[in-house]
Design brief:
39% of the residues lie in helices and 21% in strands. The chain contains 6 helices and 5 strands; from the N terminus they run E-H-E-E-H-H-E-E-H-H-H.
Length: 141
């Protein structure tokens, strides 16, 4: 898992979130309320829930377009167990939480970087439930 997780408060604008994602070169931010992780906002969330609907990114709050509830793993999870959780819940990013504290994040991209043959496992485990365009991207890595 990556221990350097970038987060953002739920009351921040989508425009500020997009700027923070660009600044840190990440594809998602963990959304927090009072320091507690409550959701995630991804590039896809911004495209489909803000830009595609012609919503104003400056006035739209992150909390109105974030993905929730936050599906999390824990630091004691086995790597394969965490990967299966992502596949079964159709998510590409798995925040790792200990208690109520965010301690890291595991992404499908991270899994492929560590285990280059992982795309075959993901494809088998998903049993066709993963979009073909995503599987094509996995094979390229």
């Amino acid at each position: 898992m990556n221990r350097e997780v970038v987060s953002i408060d739920s009351d921040v604008s989508v425009k500020a979130a997009a700027s923070k994602m660009a600044q840190h070169r990440v594809g998602c931010l963990i959304v927090t309320e009072k320091g507690r992780p409550v959701g995630v906002i991804t590039e896809t969330d911004m495209l489909s829930r803000v830009l595609a609907l012609a919503r104003n990114a400056e006035s739209t709050k992150v909390k109105t377009v974030m993905s929730e509830p936050l599906i999390c793993g824990n630091p004691d999870m086995d790597f394969i167990e965490a990967t299966k959780l992502m596949i079964n819940r159709a998510i590409k990013k798995l925040p790792i939480i200990q208690g109520e504290q965010l301690v890291g994040i595991l992404t499908i991209t991270d899994a492929l970087a560590v285990h280059p043959g992982m795309h075959e496992f993901i494809e088998e485990e998903a049993k066709g439930n993963v979009p073909k365009r995503f599987m094509k991207r996995l094979r390229k890595r």
